[in-house]
Automatic annotation (TrEMBL):
Keyword Metal-binding included in the entry's annotation: no
Annotated InterPro entries: ESRP, Nucleotide-bd_a/b_plait_sf, RBD_domain_sf, RRM_dom
Name used for this protein in its record: RRM domain-containing protein
Classification via PANTHER family: HETEROGENEOUS NUCLEAR RIBONUCLEOPROTEIN-RELATED
Sequence segments annotated as region (Disordered): 144-163
Native source species: Dovyalis caffra
Amino acid sequence: MFYRGYPDGPDGREMGAKRQRIVDQGPSFYGNSPGSSFMYNVPPYGYVSQPPPPFPVVRLRGLPFDCTENDVAEFFHGLDIVDVLFVHKAGKFTGEAFCVLGYPLQVDFALQKNRQNMGRRYVEVFRSKRQDYYKAIANEVSESRGSPRRNIPRAKSYDEGKDSAEHTGVLRLRGLPFSAGKDDIMEFFKDFVLSEDSIHITMNSEGRPTGEAFVEFANAEDSKAAMAKDRMTLGSRYIELFPSSLEELDEAVSRGR
């Protein structure tokens, strides 16, 4: 069974590694090694009679300003979601996003959702191109580095009290790629001593990643120091960090059971 963005289920580490190389490897992002079973395989160069399939990405417009990756995944329910990239301008969410799908054929199914509602808003869905998606990634990375306190959907109330919040040794992460594994999070916090048991990637009721995780640090001092990584990038995505607690961790984990 395919999970969104995971050919081997929600712990598909191999897909996570490929997700990190999305920009560097260009057309070979989805893999072209012999015998590979990854989505969107590019044919070997010897077969020049057929052009490679188009990059499976669509652009959305008119999204609610409190939209999350889970909302987009539900909007495209039944399709394989590899990445969702929200577009910001001058630090504000524009209501647009790019959604990378698992297969070129799924673009046609995604287009059937054009002008269907997400909440009270109808959402427009358009075909897009690889270069437009890459340009949007570059812009988002530039925005996050240049405006570290920018407004993020559903993050404002947390930002207001983030600096003064009490630390208990637990941080909540938001904005993770759906393909991120525990090893990716350990690399993100490589300056701290962590084990896989201290990392909890949350799942929804269907057993799919929510884009959030909780990390237990050795002590409150370490979790406070780790806040320096707030809104730094993991792959092409900036990651938001929030002081949390064991109670919030347990509640989030139990919801995914």
